[in-house]
Fold these 2 entries.
Entry 1:
Amino acid sequence: MRMYDLINKKKSGLSLTKEEITFIVNGFTSGEIPDYQMSAFLMAVCLKGMNKEETIAMTLAMAKSGDMLDLSAIEGVKVDKHSTGGVGDKTSLVLSPMVASLGVPVAKMSGRGLGHTGGTIDKLESFPGFSTAIPTDKFFDNVNKMKLAIVGQTANLAPADKKIYALRDVTATVDNISLIASSIMSKKIASGAEVIVLDVKTGSGAFMKTLDDSIALAEAMVEIGNGVGRETYAVITDMNQPLGRAVGNSIEVAEAIETLQGHGPEDLLDVSLTLGSYMLYGAKKADSVEKAREMLTKTIEDGSALNKLAEFVRAQGGDDSAVFDTNVFPKATIIEEVCADRDGYVTKIVTDEIGMTSLVLGGGRETKDSIIDLSVGLRIQKKLGDQVKKGDALATLYANDADKMKAAKERYLSAYTIEPVKPEPTKHIYGIVTKEGL
Ligand code: URA
């Protein structure tokens, strides 16, 4: 096989075989295929597309390029949830203890935050002493004993994807649905879960800004997952404003705890219950998603999800006192409000700018080596559709540095559009994609 011929074939709009795709992925990963040929191939994919078989072949070749995690030492159906990334997205912290308290194992490898989105691993470090780097045997042991462990990614998952993504990033070849879907799914498939529930965010704070693109991505990922024997569901959720009201690190953990205590924001609860329902249903713990939702709701009412969170925090070396009193989390020293500069209704929020406000305060990472301040962040007071009067607080900001506070306030205000006419109500969930379709 010659890479030149395969580039030419794709350029002509023809489909490649599984062997040809595998040759390309393996050859590029090993360094035999140079960047310039891979770039030409990726551009041809962007222009001519890939069919279902090609996309699955690419996903599997990338998944198999590194460690394929074997979770067989964990008893029960292993279920994973993955979000395409959003602002204020603390659903993992809410749904993992709920699902685990019902006996379904959650063995999660999570990431750190980068840019305008946060990461579960950073947030969990808000619990003093909490370790996100426990040894593999303890990880398995914890999941078997109490059904929940969350660690940072240490395994060498899908290195081919890492190398291909770095090239896509500089050759304007990121925005192709087949390439994005195979990139995300290669890592999920290598992580070993049998059931995968995807939270595909849509809107101004999401990777996919339009609903049509989000549906196409969800459909492509569900097709790949089910095509390789992993039961896969995708929930398309709103990211035209942050989820819940808290954005930052310990402030988001506090909001997740409040939700498990039964007084969290309605959108966060709804999205967490919906994703969790598909996790339970996929694990055959409930015979319908409606029944699964009832079971999950009960874990909040009877306190079992909150107790599971405390048990999990202790098992990973953390101080669980904040689970019962969130005032224990360290506080930022400067607290100020961002106020509306006119009367009207909040009609638009540029959500990635809200994420950037938290980053400017010190709560996010500009580069992967940045040190983050877990105590800073913001609490949103006015969301889409809310009526405001000039001078009303739109949000409360928490900082430890006056210059950062000043820059963050300007950034926050510029993310809001306030207009005289009340907008249409927003949805939390736009649709669910299963193997039967949307
Ligand atoms: N996230 C990924 O992991 N891969 C992509 O291609 C895009 C977003």
Entry 2:
Amino acid sequence: MKEQLNAIMEEALQKINALVNLETLNDIRVAYLGKKGELTNVLKSMKDVAPEERPMVGQLVNEARAKLEEKLEEKKTAFEMKLREEKIAKETIDVTLPAKKPMVGHRHPNSIALDEVERIFVGMGYEVVEGPEVEYDYYNFEALNIPANHPAKDEQDTFYVTGDILLRTQTSPVQVRVMEQGNLPIRMIAPGRVFRSDEVDATHSPSFHQIEGLVIDKNITFADLKGTLAEFAKQLFGENTKVKFRPHHFPFTEPSAEVDVTCFKCGGSGCRFCKGSGWIEILGCGMVHPKVLKMSGIDPNEYSGFAFGVGLERIALLKYEIDDMRLLYENDVRFLKQF
Ligand code: DAH
């Protein structure tokens, strides 16, 4: 019995010494100390031992057991220490390294330009309103004095949802929606997305943004329009900016004009930026057509007003000297970060 016990112990201790990792340590524990383990088997065979020897054998087995447990525990602690040291070594933090900065988003040039335009008009007492991007033909065309067969409808070809519902081609329908509410006087701008079936190139996109402006009150004249837009241009492009009104035609205004500003790059002497002319076109405008007022329930004998429409991308491209509109839609962070 004693020899058997010694042999088992010797074998077990050898195995424990040869252990290389924690995982196999438990296998050894089970193999020797478990319910069906070798030491437990020795205890089970106690019935074959002479009764007077039993206490002695029992003690030997218990001592062996205690010794094995102690050895296993020692080995386990050693492995755990080693693992911890390895982990700590791996996780060493070099506090002298530069910190990783979190990536913070950046405002889009369109948003920066829009904020600027809104700031200017809110400063002049305007309200900022919104209209739907999916619009009725009536608001987008008819009520703006663009009847069914008008050529302007072709120029602003768009995406139709049904026969009389479409993606708006301009923000001008918001004028009609606000006038219909009948809260006079009106001083508002209406920024928003518009749609046309245009091919993508450096200056066109099937979806872009406009900012509509509308003022309706008693005794509003073209002088008010000129003064307002001259002030707008100065605030947006610089104190020395001059404006020029060129006669033009829009169905919903009469008279109508296109507005140019002196090139803020060369001051008007002519450069590559303004293609040598010294002027840059920025918007369309005019006095609201009496027919348009009437259709929206406003008496043209009592009230008059002016309107204007600016392309937001155009402002952003000019202000930040970006030469290709497509860059505004690609959302490349390396590009957007520059503004
Ligand atoms: N809606 C016009 C366009 O998209 C721009 C415009 C011109 C708006 C004259 C106006 C205006 O309010 O008075 O081409």
